[in-house]
Amino acid sequence: MTKTLSLLLLSATLALPAVAQQDPKAGKILDAMSTKYQAYKSYQADFTQTLENTSAKVKQNLSGNIIVAGQKFRLKLSGQEVINDGKTTWTYLKNENEVNISDTDPDAQDMSPSQIYTMYKKGYKYTYAQAATEAGEAIDVIELTPESRTNDVFKVRIKVRKKDNSVKSWEMFKKNGNRYTFTIKNFKPNVPVTASTFSFDKAKYKGVKVVDLR
């Protein structure tokens, strides 16, 4: 499950103390970005995930897709699915044809990809790193550092497009040398969703083994 959860690690330290002093330039950009995404009723996007560890000579590329509506989401990555309806989380493992069911923690919210756009508001210090151009696009680069020294993530770098405040990509740097890069592609706002979008229908997975961890 580590491949699936690597996307969600970006929001794993949200229940930390509030931030004190912040970089106002970075805050203005982050607020505009956050407002943009929170205004959507739902959204869908393809993404690529790259894991790199120079010392271990590791480089791994994965592709995935995600649908989000508020705190609900459906994530597909490398033959796995994580579905969350805000109360229950289903993790389906295709190779094993197994689904694990667990309760969603309403306080931690550390399993919600939507927190990518609000995580800076709690438990992180943020600074404006630089203005840059990538593939012909002007971007602002913001760096976040967790206030807790026990966090295994020591830095998050978010790249925001100047033209529309959209997120181009983000990088997560961990103390063990792993660096995760997530690049958003084919973003579609306000896609149609229903209750079934964020629930696991056992009938569609013939012979699936159900492991209820609640």
Number of domains: 1
Helix/strand order, N-terminal first: HHEEEEEEEEEEEE
The second-level CATH architecture is: Clam
SS-derived structural category: mainly beta
Largest beta sheet, briefly?
Answer: 12 strands, mixed
Would you identify the regions where 5 or more consecutive residues have pLDDT less than 50?
Answer: 7-20
The rounded distance between the terminal residues' Cα atoms is 18 Å
User: Mean pLDDT, nearest integer?
Assistant: 86
What's the CATH superfamily, by name?
Lipoprotein localisation LolA/LolB/LppX
Overall geometry comes to: globular
Signal peptide: 1-20
Pfam families: LolA
InterPro entries: LolA/LolB/LppX, OM_lipoprot_carrier_LolA-like
Keywords: Lipoprotein, Oxidoreductase, Signal
Architecture overview:
The model is unreliable at 7-20 (pLDDT under 50). This protein has helices at residues 2-8, 24-38; strands at residues 43-53, 58-69, 72-77, 80-84, 88-93, 98-103, 124-134, 137-146, 153-161, 167-174, 179-189, 209-212. It has a single domain, classed as Lipoprotein localisation LolA/LolB/LppX (outer membrane lipoprotein receptor (LolB), chain A). The protein is mainly β. The longest helix is centred in the N-terminal third of the chain and has 15 residues, at 24-38.
Briefly summarize what is shown.
One of its GO terms (molecular function) is oxidoreductase activity. The protein is mainly beta.
List the helices and strands and how they pair.
Blueprint: H1 2-8, H2 24-38, E1 43-53, E2 58-69, E3 72-77, E4 80-84, E5 88-93, E6 98-103, E7 124-134, E8 137-146, E9 153-161, E10 167-174, E11 179-189, E12 209-212
Parallel strand pairs: 6-12
Antiparallel strand pairs: 1-2, 1-11, 2-3, 3-4, 4-5, 5-6, 7-8, 8-9, 9-10, 10-11
GO molecular function, one term: oxidoreductase activity
Signal peptide: 1-20
Keywords: Lipoprotein, Oxidoreductase, Signal
